[in-house]
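I had to read the description of the data format several times before I understood it. The format is easy to grasp once an entry is in front of the reader. For illustration, here is how one protein appears when written out as sequence plus structure tokens:
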Amino acid sequence: MKNIILSLLVASSLFAVDHVIDQKGKTFIPHAITVAVGDTLTFKNSDPFAHNAYTDDEANEFDTGMQSPGKPVSAKVLAAGVFNVECAIHPNMLLEVTAK
């Protein structure tokens, strides 16, 4: 049983995808995305000012902190479900993530 679980964990990390989310014009691009558990969300700041990306979702909680222009930051999707990512600096920025 341990070998099966270990094999599944290794296989899921081998097929993980890095999804790039742009932050431009005080918005997340795209506004909604569907990903798999184990995938990574990389937030790229294309604006000339700072951003932040965070979620309070208990299963996928993260906070990228202050993100300078041109600085990419990443967060891993840990569990299935639907959750929102927001910017603490620009409260109108919203990304809906569906994780399967």
Q: What stands out?
A: DSSP finds one helix and nine strands in the chain.
